[in-house]
TrEMBL record:
This is Long-chain acyl-CoA synthetase. Pfam families: NAD_binding_4. GO terms for biological process: long-chain fatty-acyl-CoA metabolic process. GO terms for molecular function: alcohol-forming very long-chain fatty acyl-CoA reductase activity. Coiled coil: none annotated. Residues 5-241 form the Thioester reductase (TE) domain. SUPFAM superfamilies: NAD(P)-binding Rossmann-fold domains. It comes from the Bacteria.
Amino acid sequence: MKLFLTGITGAVGMELARWIALNTPKARVYALIRAPSPVVLMARWKKLAAKLWPDPLARPPEGQFIPVLGDISRPGLGLSPEDAARLAGEVTHVLHSAANVELDAPLPEARQANVDGTRHVFDVVRTFPRLERAGYVSTLFVAGQRPGRFLETDAVHEAGFVNPYEQSKYEAEHLVRGLMKELPLSIYRLAYLIGRDDGEVARYNSMHSLMRLFYEGHVGAFPGTPESRMDLSSTDYVASALLTLFLGHFEPGRTWHLGNGDGALRLQDFIDTMTEVSAETERRWAQGVFLPPDVVDEDTYTLLRRTLLQTQNPRSHEVIRLGDTMYGHLLAAQVFDTRSVHALIGEQVKPPPPRRLLRDVLRHCVATGWGRNRS
């Protein structure tokens, strides 16, 4: 396998690289990395490799991973003629995981990375005559505000979106589906990723910001019901499941859901777990000064939101801002159907229990000062 991989510097791309190095030692990976020059490219790769494999003895052999200077925001990926020719002559597999994952990025900015960037990647992939298969990394939350059970075959809806990120990924999926007529492509929709199986956090995101505000006692209520689901998972799991499907069960034109499905965390379990673990290190939780957030209906939350926006408390405003990018999924009472993945590879690759994962991630966040005190 000669794989062209985008997004290796992101949380998912890093896990894909680890899995490949461990499980497919004969593979060669061409990893697209943005840099202003070849010298900076190599410096960034060396720094990334040291992070991926802290033990020098555990690092993959020289030449298994080859950094390639490029940028998905540029037509042709900004590849040099030499790199473009080399990729066209050698690549057999492609995984496109690069994306702008900021939930509140302006829609034009999200589209530039996630729609235009995807178009640029597959315009180049079209020039690969040896291509056997390609995968596009998407998100379960292309479901937007569509209520109820969301199937792998569900591709079109008019329910609207909770944030610009998921709208841009929805639009990118439609671009990819159009390409399935000419390229062997599959789509992998991922759950909301909060850390590795052991709780380590490589990339902090909006969920960690919300968890921190909860820990600090600033979250007073969630909209929805106690049964509303939060499909949270680990980067290790989705990388392992994705590559197991991609290499061992590839089906052109297929979409796969990688998450917990019916086993996703209930909102009440999220609140209870956060409260329990917060009390281990924050005395105001242990003493009952901080109280667990209430679960309220949409009208009550709308009134509360309006009231908080009238205050001068910046933390309250931050809670509202984050909620505006996430809470719509709680109100939609969504369940993402993962039954086919669990039936096919569930005995081989199992998602971590979501309550345990949340517990371990929160403990890691607190122990590292929310990323400030990492060694």
